[in-house]
Each structure stands twice: as structure tokens, then as C-alpha cells.
Amino acid sequence: MTEVLVVGAGAAGLMAAIQAARQARASGLPASVTLVDSARSLGAKILVAGGGRCNVTHHAVDETAFSGSTPAAIRKVLRRFPVAATVAFFAELAVELKREGTGKLFPTTDRARTVLDALLGAAADAGVRVVHPWRVEAVRPLAEGFEVAGPEGTLQARRLVLATGGMSLPKSGSDGHGFALARALGHTTTQHFFPALVPLSLQRGCFPTRLSGVSCEARVEVRSSTGRLGLAMRGPLLCTHTGLSGPVVLDVSRHLAAARHEDPGAHLVVAWVPRVDPPQGKSLGAWLRGLLPDRLADALLAEARVDPSSRWERIPRDLRRAVESTLTGWRAPVTGDLGFAKAEVTAGGVPLSEVRLDTLESRVTPGLHLCGEILDVDGRIGGFNFQWAWASGYVAGYSSRSGGSTPEASR
Length: 411
Hints:
Structural class: alpha+beta
CATH topology of the largest domain: FAD/NAD(P)-binding domain
Oligomer: single chain
Radius of gyration: 24 Å
CATH superfamily of the largest domain: FAD/NAD(P)-binding domain
Helix content: 25-40%
Strand content: 15-25%
Number of helices: 11
């Protein structure tokens, strides 16, 4: 029997285990915290995050950067462990963070391994027993606590923290099994799950697929089948051999998937430039190449079927409309996305309405806590999902050992 068993050694699970063990020590008790994970090598998602540099958090995080559960509920969890607390936590582990122009915070070493090693070291220092590979196949409540079982045997715990992740990057161990465990313990999950922060695929032969590696700033919109604007974002867009990627496309991807589920005619519109106002006496090609990469500019004019040497004032009205439509309202022929195998996070999960926000303890099954991606919260690209992992892991871990809510941090 261990006091606290944490299932899943990702960002949220590691934070939960560390905080549970530290809280026990602060109370003069043995740590009695066990952390299990099915992976042979821990921290795969941490190691690949941010291009291998690990985007630990963002300098400004609030509920507006997230989707899924209600903003008010997300805000209550985030403010119990804000960005300042994250920076201080990692500084204590000798991981100094630097802020880049985008607002993202990375370790000064530019190595994700620095972050993972610090977390594993903190867990060891706190007295956490880490066991892996150890896969939880089934879980059942006991008269006092829980029993989990898997191919490696059984474990018992007075309190259980589910930090199993979602369905994104299944090779890392996040294969969606945690949702089944949560349902077995009486919880519901959202009716649908969508890959989030995932590249989009376009029809074969579509011009962006011939421009792999070309990027620009663009406005991307999700529109309904009737053309009604549902969401608009602006940011870096990247053309790939399969379609579109880059931060703005990744951010929009989950919203397009959700919109298409309700309205199959929902679609993506790209504004490559804010407006079309070429100066008189200058060719369209010369003007557009001054705004966009040359290859992209030429491809867009070819898409509009206009000669790059043409001048705006000399082309007929129908060609002007074609240029304006292509440059400021190009309807992307999206055929889908690259799926959970390439998604950075999962949209969907256990609703926050089913947990107590000050402890993340289940309202359905006492003694059970949930944190991280298993909950119905997903954030924009840029460190927001890591901040959710640190905050929710802190709340679940601290309260699993203290028996009460976490102190609310000042904003």
C-alpha cells in the first residue's frame, strides 16, 4: 500500500508526484508516493517539445488561451500555480528560463533534456518511487483506496492521481487508455476527441504542397458552410509537402475539426495579405514579391491566373476580383489533418465540472484526482499546454497528500 499512486510520468504526472511527496515531507510524513508509467524511456513528450528545446511555458498565460471546459473553471486552476510559480519552481531546480520574442520561455541550455532531468531529479530527491515500464490495465476502488492491475502485477494506494495524457503522440504512451480508466471510475468524457495543434492536409497537387518550407504571416479563418465567420487568427503559416502547418494553422486545427463535425461544410480561409492595394505603375508580381516570399507570390498569381507582369490598373474587373479573392480569401481545400500521431495535444477529455477545482479531486469517486491532458482542456501553441500541466499537476499532487485545497497563488 502506497499513500499516493500517480499514473503517468509526463509533465503533469511528474509535477503531481513531486508535490505530493514534498507535501508529505512538509507534514513530517514519509513520502509514500509511487509514480508508474508504461514507457521504457520517460518524458518522450517533454523531450520533443519545442523542437527538442522544451517550451516550458509562456510569459503571459490566462484562460483565453484555452479551449474545452469553461474559461472560469480553467482560470481557477491556472491561478493556483501561475507562470511566476513555474519560473520559481524551475529556478529552484537550477533550470533558468529565458524569454524569447514570441513570449515563449525556454531553458537557457536550449535542451529539453535539462527540463526532464531536473524533474526526475526533483522526484528522486522528494522520495518518489518511480516504476517503469508498468502499464495500468485496470483499476477498481477498494473499501479504502484503489487497486490497479497490469501485466506487471497489482498495486494498492489510498489515493490515485490519473495523469495519463490524452491520445496525441501515442508512441509516447498517450494512447487514450486513461480515458477508459476514468470512465471505469465513474467519470464521463466528452463525446468526441479531436487532434489539436496538428498540421492540416490539402488536396494533392494544391499549390502550397509544391512550396514546402515557404512561410509567411497570414490570417486564417474558420467559416461555416454559409460563410459565417467562426474564428480568425493571425500568425506564422508554413507550407508543407502535405498541406499547411505553422503556429497559426496548428492553433486553428482543433477549431476546424470541431466545426466540421457539426457542419461538414465548414472550411478554412486564408488571407495571405491584409488587403490588395498595389501602387500604380508597378507590376503585380513586383508588388506581391515585396510582401511575400517570391515563390509564394508567383504561385498565388498563377492561382489567380494573372500574369505577374500585369499592372493592377490595366487588368479587367474579373481578374481584379480573382486576385483579391485569392490573396485575401483563398479557400483552402483541406482534406483532413495528420491525426493524433502528429498532434501535440488532445481536444476533449473529462470535463472540469466533474472535479473540485481547488483540489482536482473527483466529485464522483473520492480519493481520485485528475490532472493534465486527461481533462478537457487544450491550449494554444507556445507553452500554454505545459503551463496547464504544471498548474493542474501541482493542484492534484499537493491536495492528494494534504487532504485539502492548495493555497491560491497571487496573480
